[in-house]
Amino acid sequence: MGSNLLSLIEGTTFYYDDLNVGDRFQTAGRTVTEADIVNFAGLSGDFNSVHVDAEFASTTGNGQRIAHGLLVLAIASGLSTRLPLMKLIDKAILGLAGVECRWFKPTFAGDTIHVTVEIQAKEPGKKPDRGTLILKRLAINQRGETVMESTSRIVLKTKPA
What we know:
29% of the residues lie in helices and 33% in strands. It is α+β, with helices and mostly antiparallel strands. Strand 4 (112-124) and strand 5 form a beta hairpin.
């Protein structure tokens, strides 16, 4: 990204009114590592054998340890926050109102995921100075498989009068 574009983003805020249903964005990729899985187990306290016990995991249908679903959600969230869109709406965000998530396939150490983000809907707020964006995120692995889908509800300010 050129420095001129970066300077435009730095001084610009997008509001609820500036975004449209159907707007779509794609993140860079990120490889899920062994360290990610181990660190997430320690951070979350989730030491389920399917995540941390290679011997046990080899006997499951996946044949190997899998990344925590919430780790995949966290990585997808982190990748999404690096999008220019998120930089543009940063100062207009009032809060996260909800997240729903479904996992379709396991993610393994060594898998590289990227995320597509699409504005699915817009809901006017109960107050005139805000509205809610409904964002659909798909985490897609290096094989083109959707491993996770999440829907986030982000409350944003409307444009100042």
